[in-house]
Design a protein that fits this description.
This protein has one domain. The chain contains 6 helices and no strands. The longest helix has 14 residues.
């Protein structure tokens, strides 16, 4: 019997409300030291949160499948190493395990609406401050 793997499916929780996300973003930025702030830039953090906030409406609000999978794992005599949770998760996981890592990474970023040059730390940007960076 093949073991299933955990899907990269997200769920909407109270912690993904716009108010909580804005407070968390401010908290993270204020907790960083000056060197880290200079390396990444505030625009980087804002862009990450903007991308995440844009994805939230696509996530399901029902976390019952996740709780069910967790209970199944906890109470099983022989739990699986991974569980597929969410619509199409089994198919995606079986597909992703057959692909090279770099393709899997690109697909994961595409699903989360983040492209490699979409979000780039300040120090990796080209001198003309374009969003297309040599290191991204």
């Amino acid at each position: 019997m093949e073991k299933e793997q955990l899907s990269f499916v997200f769920f909407v929780l109270a912690s993904t409300s716009p108010e909580v996300l804005a407070a968390r973003k401010a908290e993270i930025w204020s907790s960083l030291d000056e060197q880290t702030k200079a390396l990444y830039g505030e625009a980087y953090l804002k862009r990450l949160y903007t991308n995440f906030e844009a994805c939230v409406p696509r996530y399901p609000t029902n976390v019952a499948p996740v709780v069910s999978a967790m209970c199944s794992a906890l109470f099983s005599k022989q739990p699986k190493s991974r569980y597929a949770v969410g619509r199409g998760a089994s198919f995606l996981i079986s597909l992703l395990t057959m692909l090279p890592s770099w393709i899997t990474d690109r697909l994961s970023m595409a699903v989360m609406s983040i492209t490699s040059c979409d979000v780039c730390p300040a120090k990796l940007q080209q001198p003309n401050n374009s969003s297309v960076a040599a290191g991204c």
